[in-house]
């Protein structure tokens, strides 16, 4: 028995295997729920209800999906060019720092001018955080997986220092948190009385723009060519290093928008727990979306739904919400397996 | 040692192999007798490699059986084939470069649990076999330091040490100098005299004529002819392979024009194991094919890279139309009117997952009409691809199909079309017909000659001496990064060129 590659898998295979992966994931999750002593069917129902069973639940899911769309896009864009950006977490935090530094009163402008400036500043900070590893990669061949990954810890310690020092809120009763941003620096709610803020709208726009960039423009063509075959791209005359730098700016900027959106939209200030691993979860989101920018939106909502649903299920059924992490991990592994199987068949 | 000669050692009966809708072999039957050399001929995609992989147990046939020495071979089990005495020398060698010859030969033959290594006995055995078969190679040399010809000898020794009774050689002479090929044939004759049987796969008809007793011709996965070599001719074999008469391009006199590209005493650094150029001076003239031969790895990659824009001179100058370009990159090379056919069509020439349209515009994408203010104009790009597909007879499902689905020949036609359609002043053709069948090969050669007659300066780099001699108006030889003087058409025999390829004739030759 051996595995053989299929040169052109059919649509049924390409859709069927990922669907099978999600089904398998659901089975694993329900099995775990059973182990925890709950009725698996009820747990599954509670997760779905908790994620999308009411207007409040659905909006909570979309709120949680917002930063994941940004980090998912950041990873998807970079991975397309085979620039292995594992540092979306660091870029997110630097984006948040830029937002807080400029948004807590330093620039006392109306929202219409302040918000765009904050977004651009955040993107610049995030881009910088990825440009350094990219430069080390193109100039000295340093593996960006290592540098971007380690920079996550550097960035978090840097934020921790800022929150204990220069950015510490004097009114914060000693807690390590920044001053809240001024009202003009808050992203408005999408509708009055809803918790959902315009960060979500911005994320959707970003996904569409990235999609257009990748499929319709010369820059996107270059990014895809560099990612698929670097040697052929170089031979054809593409400026490979410039392409990587552009990709890094875009990717780092997108991840930083997650930080901007969380500070200006959701939280209002900066703490060291601003992101419960959005940068890392963005990798799962991007992989589940097969690096497709519009798929990122769907995958981010799915992942956010599992987190939000599991939280609510945990309260109702007494099953630990860690089940959400396990579910996502198995979804990722099952998806990677499914992708492999899509283009392989078993021969005896 | 003549007893048993003529008995059947290998019998392939009615082998059918399908890959989905594609039938690679259909009812192929083949017999190999003791002490016999059988040449397996066929165009690319005719099913030769599939058949060899079935025989070696790498693929399991859908139908049919493999019988070795009267025993049927369990399908899909290379180990069984090895143990039954089948030795395979692949076109691309499977040696560990960082190990010695002896270690490479020993690899896989020893038990993991054996307390003694048995190196001494093995060295004696290798020495004896090398002596017997004329396979000169130092058992303690590191493989990385060996020439291609020496590596091939190691591969053959590997098979002999494992007591192979049947040797399969897949295009063994593709990378050898003429002299090395003659040595190989001498080795094969000794092996046959000792009772081994040989299956020899080659495109080169004169070699088939020289070494084989019998030829079997495959076309579209079926055996279309089988004949004693003595009773057939090269023309006949070529006709059987293709299924049509093939006319080689008739040599036409060249009308050399002005110098388009000039190298003046150019030196380039070595890259990894690839040799750099050492003080190379040459001129590429309009309306002339300049051929470049040499054993693989003697600086061809550096010279091709220099013309293609991937490499810059470390010392010396490169002149395009009399001027030294200030910036020299692949993009400026394309802009300077240099059409480039890369050596590795999969690795450098195309992006496998891109469709034909995207691959067709790879070099021109940043220019009008493909780019309109940074936006890709798919319509122009598709029209361009369709023009190339039509004019250069690229067989494909359509311009939207990923190029990795195409055969090597059709991929090469797309690259050729992409180059020719821009009417370049200079054409770098690096191994333009490697792995192509006779039909595609003749087509590529015709196109190159047509471009020459139109006034293009062509640099043809190939490891195939016959190809270079047939097409070139001037021939240079590269050896260890040094370039020979240019020899006019008809002034050198293959043997004389072969001597230059081994380094004889150069001023600093030892």
How would you portray this structure in words?
The complex is a heterodimer of chains A (348) and B (510). Chain A is mainly alpha-helical and 348 residues long. Chain A has a domain at 69-288. Helices cover 72% and strands 2% of the residues of chain A. The mean pLDDT of chain A is 91. By secondary structure, chain B is α/β, with parallel strands linked by helices. Chain B folds into 2 domains: 8-242, P-loop containing nucleotide triphosphate hydrolases (Rossmann fold, 3-Layer(aba) Sandwich); 259-501, Rossmann fold (3-Layer(aba) Sandwich). Chain B contains 17 helices and 22 strands. In chain B, the strands form 5 sheets. In chain B, strands 13, 15, 18, 19, 20, 21 and 22 form a 7-stranded mixed sheet that branches. In chain B, a hairpin with a 2-residue loop joins strand 9 (214-219) and strand 10 (222-228). In chain B, helix 13 (378-391) packs across helix 14 (408-420) and helix 14 (408-420) packs parallel to helix 15. Chain B starts with 7 loop residues before the first strand and ends in a 9-residue tail after the last helix. Chains A and B meet through helix 8 and helix 9 of A and helix 10, helix 11 and strand 17 of B.
- Assembly type: heterodimer
Helical segment count of chain A = 13
Question: What value does the Rg of chain A take, in angstroms?
Answer: 21 Å
- Average pLDDT of chain A, to the nearest integer? 91
CATH domain topology of the largest domain in chain B: Rossmann fold
In whole angstroms, the N-to-C terminal distance of chain B is 43 Å
SSE-based structural type of chain A: mainly alpha
Task: Name the shape of chain A in a single word.
Answer: globular
What percent of the residues of chain B sit in helical stretches (DSSP H or I)? 25-40%
Beta-strand percentage range of chain A: under 5%
């Amino acid at each position: 028995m051996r595995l053989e590659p299929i040169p052109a898998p059919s649509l049924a295979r390409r859709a069927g295997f990922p669907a099978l992966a999600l089904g398998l994931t659901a089975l694993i999750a329900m099995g775990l729920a059973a182990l925890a002593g709950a009725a698996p069917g009820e747990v599954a129902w509670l997760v779905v209800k908790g994620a999308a069973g009411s207007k409040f639940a659905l909006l909570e899911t979309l709120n949680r999906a917002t930063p994941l769309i940004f980090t998912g896009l950041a990873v998807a864009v970079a991975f397309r060019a085979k620039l292995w950006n594992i540092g979306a977490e660091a870029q997110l935090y630097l984006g948040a720092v830029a937002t807080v530094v400029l948004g807590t009163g330093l620039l006392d402008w109306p929202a219409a001018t302040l918000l765009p400036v904050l977004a651009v500043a955040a993107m610049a900070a995030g881009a910088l955080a990825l440009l350094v590893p990219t430069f080390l990669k193109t100039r000295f061949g340093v593996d960006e997986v290592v540098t971007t990954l380690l920079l996550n810890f550097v960035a978090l310690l840097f934020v921790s220092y800022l929150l204990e020092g220069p950015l510490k809120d004097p009114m914060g009763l000693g807690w390590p948190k920044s001053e809240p941003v001024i009202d003009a620096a808050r992203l408005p709610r999408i509708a009055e009385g809803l918790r959902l803020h315009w960060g979500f709208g911005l994320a959707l726009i970003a996904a569409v723009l990235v999609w257009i960039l990748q499929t319709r423009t010369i820059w996107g063509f270059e990014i895809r060519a560099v990612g698929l075959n670097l040697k052929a791209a170089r031979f054809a005359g593409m400026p490979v290093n410039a392409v990587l730098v552009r990709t890094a700016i875009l990717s780092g900027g997108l991840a930083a928008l997650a930080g901007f959106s969380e500070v200006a939209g959701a939280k209002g200030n900066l703490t060291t727990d601003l992101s419960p691993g959005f940068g890392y979860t963005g990798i799962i989101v991007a992989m589940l979306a097969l690096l497709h920018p519009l798929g990122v939106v769907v995958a981010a909502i799915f992942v956010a739904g599992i987190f939000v649903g599991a939280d609510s299920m945990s309260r109702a059924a007494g099953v630990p919400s860690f089940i959400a992490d396990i579910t996502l991990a198995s979804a990722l592994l099952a998806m990677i397996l499914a992708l492999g199987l899509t283009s392989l068949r078993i021969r005896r | 040692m003549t007893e048993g000669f003529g008995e059947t050692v290998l019998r392939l009966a009615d082998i059918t192999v399908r890959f989905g809708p594609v039938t690679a072999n259909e009812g192929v039957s083949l017999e190999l007798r003791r002490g016999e050399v059988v040449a397996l001929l066929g165009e690319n995609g005719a099913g030769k490699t599939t058949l060899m992989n079935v025989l070696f147990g790498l693929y399991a046939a859908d139908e049919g059986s493999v019988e070795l020495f009267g025993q049927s071979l369990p399908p899909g089990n290379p180990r069984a084939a090895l143990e039954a005495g089948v030795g395979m020398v692949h076109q691309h060698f499977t040696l560990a470069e960082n190990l010695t010859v002896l270690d490479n030969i020993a690899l896989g033959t020893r038990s993991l649990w054996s307390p003694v290594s048995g190196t001494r006995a093995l060295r004696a055995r290798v020495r004896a076999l090398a002596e017997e078969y004329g396979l000169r190679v130092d058992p303690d040399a590191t493989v990385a330091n060996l020439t291609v010809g020496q590596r091939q000898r190691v591969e053959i020794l590997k098979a002999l040490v494992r007591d192979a009774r049947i040797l399969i050689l897949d295009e063994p002479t593709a990378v050898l100098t003429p002299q090395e090929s003659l040595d190989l044939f001498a080795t094969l004759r000794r092996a046959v005299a000792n009772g081994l049987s040989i299956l020899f796969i080659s495109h080169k008809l004169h070699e088939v004529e020289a070494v084989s007793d019998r030829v079997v011709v495959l076309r579209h996965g079926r055996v279309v002819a089988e004949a004693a070599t003595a009773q057939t001719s090269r023309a006949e074999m070529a006709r059987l392979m293709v299924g049509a008469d093939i006319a080689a391009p008739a040599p036409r006199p060249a009308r050399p024009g002005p110098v388009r590209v000039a190298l003046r005493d150019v030196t380039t650094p070595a890259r990894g194991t690839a040799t750099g150029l050492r003080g190379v001076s040459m001129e590429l003239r309009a309306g002339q094919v300049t051929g470049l031969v040499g054993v693989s790895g003697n600086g061809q990659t550096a010279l091709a890279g220099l013309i293609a824009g991937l490499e810059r001179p470390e010392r010396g100058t490169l002149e395009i139309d009399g001027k030294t370009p200030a910036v020299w990159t692949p993009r400026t090379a394309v802009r300077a009117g240099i059409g480039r056919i890369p050596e590795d069509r999969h690795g450098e020439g195309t992006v496998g997952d891109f469709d034909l349209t995207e691959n067709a515009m790879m070099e021109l994408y940043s220019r009008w009409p493909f780019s309109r203010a940074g936006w890709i104009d798919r319509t122009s790009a598709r029209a361009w691809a369709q023009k190339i597909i039509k004019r250069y007879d690229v067989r494909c499902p359509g311009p939207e199909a990923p190029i990795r689905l195409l055969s090597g020949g059709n991929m090469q036609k797309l690259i050729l079309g992409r180059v020719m359609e821009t009417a370049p002043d200079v054409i770098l053709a690096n191994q333009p017909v490697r792995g192509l069948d006779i039909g595609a090969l003749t087509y590529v050669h015709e196109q190159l000659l047509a471009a020459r007659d139109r006034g293009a300066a062509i640099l043809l780099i190939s490891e195939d001496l016959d190809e270079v001699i047939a097409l070139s108006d001037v021939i240079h030889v590269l050896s260890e990064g040094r370039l020979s003087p240019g020899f006019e058409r008809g002034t050198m025999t293959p043997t004389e060129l072969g001597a230059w390829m081994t380094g004889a004739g150069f001023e600093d030759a030892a």
